[in-house]
Every structure is written in C-alpha cells, then in structure tokens.
## 1
Amino acid sequence: MTVEVYTLSLKERTKLKGLLEVVSSSAEFETVPIRRHEESLLRRIYDRVPVKLDQVNFEAPHFKTFLLLQAHFSRLQLPPDLVADQALVLEKVMNLLSACVDVMSSNAWLSALGAMDLSQMCVRQVPHFEPDVTISTSVPFVRNTQKPLIGHRTLQRCRHQLRI
C-alpha cells in the first residue's frame, strides 16, 4: 500500500521538503501517539525546525512525525516521551526511505538522490538544510576526491535537485 502511495505522490521534481511530507504521511506512522499536553510543546518545536508546512495540525500523528524527524536532524533536545516517539519513527523511516529510492530510481529520476540524502540525514543526524552541507558530504558515494571528476555543473544540478 505505501509503495503505491509513493508511486502516486513522488514526482521527478520532488525535493527534500516533499519527501519529508510524503514519508511522514505514511500509514506506518498512524500509530504515533498524540498526548493531550503535547500541543504547546510541538508548537515550540515547530518554531525551531527549518522546514515549514502551509497547513499544520498539531494533533495529527503524521505532522508529529514530520516534526520529530526534523528535530532529529536539528539535534533538538526533547523530553523523554518525545524521545521514545522519535525512536519509534526512526525505527520505521529507513525502510520507507528505501521504498522512496526504489520508486524514484525505477523511474530514473535524479531526485532519488534526495531520498538517499534524507536517509543519510536520519543515519548521521546531519541536517542538509545547513548551507555548507552539500551532496558531496552527505551522500556516501560522492567523495571530495571525486568532485573534480564529476564536474562543477553536475554537482550544481545535484544540489539544485536536493534543495528545499
């Protein structure tokens, strides 16, 4: 079911923000608990994360997932109950991102690199949103020694594809 949703939702020009939205909206995250006292805390987290949405719902598990992933990348300190929820999210997200990579790469979309980059953000807890973090430092198969071989234009296109 999730792969079908990804096939319909992901496009050739899907960037990091779109990937975050699509993955966070996966059915696997419907069980993320929403507690009564959390709304004000989630609002404060939302104010501190780099990626914003047009419509927010602090009582939706998918939105909470969206926030918890960004809190992970941004290395925000969370209270124990949110740390437990975040662990639950991080446990599931890698398989979902692999499915995104499969869907995107099966269509030969360069934006599959964005899904790989998001996977690395989850593993390494490094935000791609920082200006000095580029594809050459966050995607494991592109090393600094390979930059001259790849060429400046190709790296620029990759960076453009991965930007929010």
## 2
Amino acid sequence: MAENEKIQELLKQIHELAAELEKSRQELKRLYNEVRILSGENINPTRLAETQKRRQESFSLENFVGLRLIHFIGIIALVIGLAIGVKYAIDRNLVSPLMRIGLAYLAAAILFFISFRLRKKYRLFSLILFGGSMATAYFTTYGAFAYYQFLTIAVTFGLMLLLAVVTVYYSIKYNSQELSVLALVGGYGIPFLVRGNAENWIGLFSYIFIINLAISFLSFKRYWTTLIYLSFAVTWIIFLSSLYLRFEKIGFAPALLFSILFFLLFMVNTTAFKFRRKEQLTWPDTLIVLINITLFYFALWRIFNFDDFEQLSVMTILFGVASLGTGLLEKFLHQSTLAKGFLLFGLLMVIISIPMRFEQLTITIIWMFMATLLFVIGLWKKTKLFRLVAIVLFAATLFKLVAIDSMKFTAIQKVISYILLGTILLTISFLYQKFKDVIFRDDEPDPNNF
C-alpha cells in the first residue's frame, strides 16, 4: 500500500514537471517567434544554437577558405569562364547576337535556379550564386541595349529596375547587406547606362530619390551601415557635381527641391533604425548627420549663388542657430552624442560667420568675447564642451593675432588686441585655479550635461 502511494506521488510529480516543461517550451517558442518578427528572419532554436556554436569556434584558415573564400573565387572564375566563352564564340561567329544574349540570360537563370534550390541547406553558397545571377542579368540587359539595340530605353530601364527590386527583396529575405549593396550599385548605374544622349536631370534626381526611399525603408528594418554610407556618398556626389557643373540646365526650383529632399532623406536613413529602437546614436552616426548638413549647406550655396560673403554669412548664421537649437532639443530626446554634435556644428557655423561680415580688429575682438562667453557658460553650467570650444577659439584668435593681424594692425590696434587677449586669458587661468576642484571633479558629468 505504501509502495502504491509512493508510485502515485512520483507519477504526480512527473506530470507536474511535464506540464512545466510544456509551458516552458511554449514560452520559448513565443520568444523565438517574437525575435523572428522583429528581425525579419526565420529563426528556430536548433539554427540559433548552431549559430552560437559556430561563433564560439576559433578562427581557422581551413574554415575561412572552405566556407567563404572558395565560394567567391568560384563564382568569379565561373563569370570569367562565361565571358571568355562568349568572346570566343563572338570572335569566330559561332552564335548570333541574339543567341549570345539568350545564352547569357540562360546562365543567369540557371544560377538563380540553383541558388533557389540550395537556399535552405546551403545559405551562404545560395547567396553567392544569387548575387552572380543578378550581376549576370544586369550586364546582359545592358549589353542587349547598348551593343545590340535589342531593347528600347523604356524596356531596359524597367528590366534593370525590376532586377534591383528583386535583389532588395532577397537581401531582406537572406538578411544580407552584400546583396543590398549589389542592388544599390545596379540601381544607381541604371540611369547612366540607359539614359542615351538626353539630359533629363529631373528624371535622374527623381529616380535617385526613389532608390533612396527604398533605402529609407531598409533603414527601418536593418542597420546596414555600409548600405547607408554608400548611398549617402554616391547620391551627394552625383547631386553636387551636377549642381556645380550643370546648374543652368537643372534650374533653380528643381535644384532647391531635390537638395531639401535628399537632405531630409539621409537624416531619416541615418537615424531611423536607432530612433525607432530608442538607442543612442554613436559618433560615426553623428558624423554622417553633420556631413549631411554640411553638404546641404554647400548645395544651397551653389543654388542661391550669393554675390558676396556678407550675404552668405546670413545663411551661415541661420544654420548655426538652427543647429544650436536642435542640439538643445536633442538633449530632451536623450541623444547626448547627437546633441553634442549639433552644438559643436552650430558653434562652428556662428564662429566662421564672423569673418564673413567683419574685418581685422573687429573679428579678433568678437572672437575673444565669444570665447569668454562660452567659457563662462561652460563654467556656470558645468559643461565641458563649451569650455573646450572656448579654449580652441582662444587659440585660433591668438594665432590670427600673431600670424595675420600683426602684419596689418597699427600700433594702437596691436596694443588693444594683445592687452585685451592677455587680460582675458589670465582671468580664465585664475578661474581654472579657483574652481579646479569643481571643474575636474565634473569631468564625468551627468548625461544631461554635455
């Protein structure tokens, strides 16, 4: 009897443990599904465990060569072989031009089919084959248009745009930044490959804007810095070079419109992913934001074509004030690094606007008072950034005074400048000595103080 009770008790414990295990399994499944939804990938426990195990393995030459390098070399060798074969056939007139294009498309289709069949078991190999198929299709389409005139401009543009869209789709499906870069390169190359002799600048900028809208969509899904930085560089290079070389053909209104659109788009592309997840932007992110503002500044400079620096100084001050205001606003959005970047940029724009409006002694005196004001604010608010900017501005003022002003100033101007600068520097040195405990104790300030 006692044994039966003992067995019943053990069975009860077994059932309870089984229920807890089932509950834990369901919770684990729910968490994996949540990760899959957030990342856009099909994740399962087995694959995740295998991935973690592979990451823990130490680097080996055989692993690198066997799993990665051979794939790339193989696909390159295959493309070279196809190119040599096509050239051989062309030189000996073995196949007609239409057959050459058809065989090239067939090779691309075969690569795509194989990559599709191997996508589950051999993901990386499938990924490389897919990239090779898309590259082959890109250049085959261009060859059919440029060399054989088999396709019209509209058909060629549509086909290459479709290839770019397919590549973007699979870059998300494979979670592959490399594929997205391939799509980007192909996408940007389309208008230059198929544009003909016409210069449709509005059409070109509209197309680039659409490409960047797709990148904006990707920036909400993935944090692919290579894609963001590459699109940023290529777009601004194309746009600014067009502005400075073909502004008369572009026109004022389209140039202004697209400069604003590109500026806003890249602000979104750079910040969207981390803003959405409430993460801190890093200094590289902030640097891209500031470069974007700077390029926008130079675009507006070319568009408005200011007659002199005094007119340009108005826009420079506006940029400075807007950046300072944004820096203070970002403080309340808990983006301390971005806020520091905006404050630095704003101060720089205000500082460089002074020489645009004033001359010689006036510049020196204004810079001295600006540096003094920044230092006092930095001391009062315990803001290290303002104090450092003040020191740099004092150094720039001293350099200007010694290297430039000394050759142009009268004796009275030199006396005023040197005495004023020396007095201010000694006063600041005294303040450093007096408040050194407070200043250097706060070298690691509260995050709300920059």
## 3
Amino acid sequence: MPWEWPGRRLRYQWFVSSSFGDFNKNLIKDLRANGGKATSGPFKGRDVLILTTKGARSGEDRETPLVYSWEKGHRVIVASKGGAPTHPSWYHNLKNHPIVTVEAAGEEFKARARVVEGDDYERLYKQHADLNPGFWDYRAKTTRKIPVIILERIDSDLRR
C-alpha cells in the first residue's frame, strides 16, 4: 500500500484523524450555537447529543457528538464506530467512568451510562436503527456485537 512507506502511514492516519476531528468539532460548535440542533450536514434534523466522557487512560474530558433515540425518558446511544471492527474510544471511556455529561436539546446534565444486555438489547438496537438506518449497515460491516447504551439522567440541568 502506498501509505506503508516510512513516514507516510503516519501522515495518512493524521489526515484521516484530523479530518474526522475537525468534523466533530464543527458539529459540536453548531449544536451549541443552535440549542442542540444541527443546522447542516448529515445530522441536520436528527436528534444529536454531545457526550463528554473521561478518558479511560488520560483522565481528560473527551467530547463526542452522537445521534440518539429514546427509551422511557432516557436517551439511547449506540457504539457503532461506523461498523469498524473495534469499539469507539468513547465506549471504553464510559466503561471505565460511567458517569458522563450529556448536552442535548439545549440542556446539560450528568448521566450514568449503562450498557444494555439481555432481552432489551435487540429491541433497542432495532428501535435505534429504524430511526437511523445507517446503523443496519454498520452491523452488517462488523462481526463484533455493537454496544447499546442507555444514559440514565442523575441530576437536573447543569446550566441553571
């Protein structure tokens, strides 16, 4: 592969990472500027939150925009990573530090992240994928079980 040349692979990975990072930063700015609503791009018109986790190794705050669905008053997120063979970093973070901060629909609050197991797993994955059809494609791309997480609110709006 052409990016296997000495030094080239690192530049290729930096470019991909930097472009994705820039997209997320711009989406987060858009969400914060518009009461939690994306005004352009692929997330326009969709329910999107900003999840802040504590880094599993670094302990530093990490922000990630994610689409969500609802279950009995709680937001549901899915650790698809676009169907990649590994879990996203934010999933490892919340497994180590399950108390997270959620920004959604113009409010900010603490939540406990709970990974869904058992009978509810398939039902909640289907519910999420029916609203966000790309998640059916993500599942088809990978052999790993894509985690479903419920964010259970544990306090009131932090901005008040």
## 4
Amino acid sequence: MKKLSELLLLIVMSLMFSVVLADHDSDDDSSDDDSRDKQRRGLNADAAAELQDAGVNKYLNMFVPIGSEDVGDGWTKHTFNPDGGNGPICIAGTPYSVFTRSGKKNKLLIFEQGGGACWQDFYNCNVLSEAQEPPTARVGIWDFDSKDNPFKDYSIVYMPYCDGSVFTGDNDVFDPAFGAAIGVPQAVVRFHRGLRNQSAGMDVAKAVFPHARKITVAGSSAGGVGAVGFAPFLVRSLYGNNVKLTVFTTNQAAVDEINARRDDWQVGQFYPASCDECGDEVGDDSTAIIKWRLENDSTIREAFYETDGDLTNRFFLDLLFDPMGFRTLVVTKHGLINALFPKRYKRFIVAGDETHTALQTPLFYSQDANGTLLNEWTKAFLKGKKKKWVDIVEESVIP
C-alpha cells in the first residue's frame, strides 16, 4: 500500500511539473509553431549561408557617412558620398541620407519610408531623399509625447525612400524617358540602388545603436515591401540571433511580379536558392520570402496591417475598379502565411476603408478592427502579449 501511495505521489508531481512547463511555454510567442529548430534560435546556419551566397549582405560594411549634422527635434542626418554613382544614391543620382534619433539604447525601430515605385514607362516614385527628411510632424508613431505610442521611447533609424525599387533593387537602367518624366532631361539613367541604400542605413544603425536588443523593422507602402524583403536578414547579419527581432509592415500588397519591374530592379538575384516560390518568373509569389523567413528563423515575429479598400495599392496592382479582387488577394495571400505560422504572423485587416497608411498619421490611434485599436494591437505585438496580439480580419462590407 505504501509503495502504491508513493507511486501515485510521483505521478501527481510529474503532472503538476508538466502543467507548469506547458503554461510557461504557452506565453512564449517567439517559439516556432511546430517546435522545430530547437538547437538554434533565430536564423539557422544553412539559411544564413544561402543568403550570403545570394549576395544579400554584400553591401554591408561598405559605406560610411561623410558627414553627420543635427537637424532638430533630436534627429541627426547622416549623408553618404555618391562616389561618382558607386555609393548609396537616389534614383536620379542625387545623394542619399539616413536619420537617427536616440531613445532607449536597447530598443530600436528601423523605419523605411514609402513613396511609390518606378520602372520602364511607369514613373510614380519619390526621387529625392530631401523630400522625406525629418523632423516630421509629431503625429502617429512620431508623436514621442503620447503615452499611447508604443514606440515613444525607442531609438530610431529612419530611411527615406528614393530608389524607386522598394529598397530591394540593384540595377542601373538607361532610360531617357525617365528624365523627361521627372522634369530633369539630363537624368537619363535610373539608379535602382535599393539594397545598397538599405544596407548603408543598417550600417548606421549598428554604428549608432550597437547595444540594441529589441529591434523592430517597419515600413509603410513601398517601405513596407522593403521591410518584409531583405531588411530582417540584414539585421540578423549585423546584430546576430540574440536580439528579439520583429517586423511590422503596413500596406505591403501581395502581388505576382510585373515583367518590366522584374527586369529593371533585378531583385531575383538575391533570393535564397531553397525558396522555390521566390524568383523573377511570372507567377512567383512575392510573399514567399516571408514564408521562407518564418520557416528558417525560429524566433522572428511579423505583423501585417492593411485596409481592404486601399486605393493606392489598388492603383499599383491595376485593381482600382475591382475592390473585391484586391480584398481577396490580400486576405488570401497573407492568410496562408498566418495558417502556417499562427503564433508568429498575424494580420490587422480593416474592412470598408480606402486609406493607404496609418502609422504616420493620427489614424494610428483611432483606427480599429473589430473594436481593437491599431496602436493597442501594435503594443501587444511588440510586447509579445499572446492574448492581446491576435489575428484580426474584419468581415467584408463590399456589396
């Protein structure tokens, strides 16, 4: 009888210990959904080697700003040498700058600005870095005095967007029509230096904020594409796997590649070999790199915000007169990622709204989906609050 009692006691203690472990694990949203890759946190070694082979990090540690200056409200401007066209430059060959603002040394927001896109016979992109320089109006995530701003105490690296290739391109295109279109006839070459500019900005991040341990890469519109493209890999390359890395993209549409854009930007050369759905061929999935990253980086978490009537993205995707087609594209493409990685990839999709961006506007504090405010959802995402950071897709109101 005594032995039986001792055995029952051991079983009960074992069950209690298991429950404690289960409760502890359930609070960790950074763990992989199917418990793979327990031996290595973050980006696995094979994936890192593939990215290096593809040349994703080839521009890191190449460019140092030739000057830094205080531009007010806590912002510092870091300008690069164009180096006769070999350095970080904008699409028309003008100088490129990035900006920093100090906050807590362990928390860093790397933000990539938006501004359209350019390719052959399609010229709808910002062309000058100076057009997007801080100090910005203190609204949205730039309202550093707001207690409701989850980024209020973050250090910041801000990258203007002026390469026309959503921070991913690496190609020069002779195109006299471009100069005529922007009113600068002598600009006969489009310099799509997206990856070069982005890498230079990342080097500034590491130099100015070397002790960051909680890093969020975010972007809006074109910058959102850059943020979910190669930016997280550059962060891993510079900061390693011990940092808590999150990605927050807004208004980054899911779309198959456009022929002229593929040819002009030459993005496909940087995709990892094992990403079978990545590439430059027609039908390749532009969200495939997100899925590949989540498969190969066991601790990264990513958030996606969009409105299902986004007029700007509908224009760029040629879906201006097909709102249901746009909604279906966005909900389905990003829904597939959420289904594969439900703990680490979640959506905030607002129905019946045609606005394009929210992070840098007052809308960041008033936009809601099913009663949850965007800024509160963002806060839960940054803190890894499992019960509050949930996948939200509002029901369609399109007739």
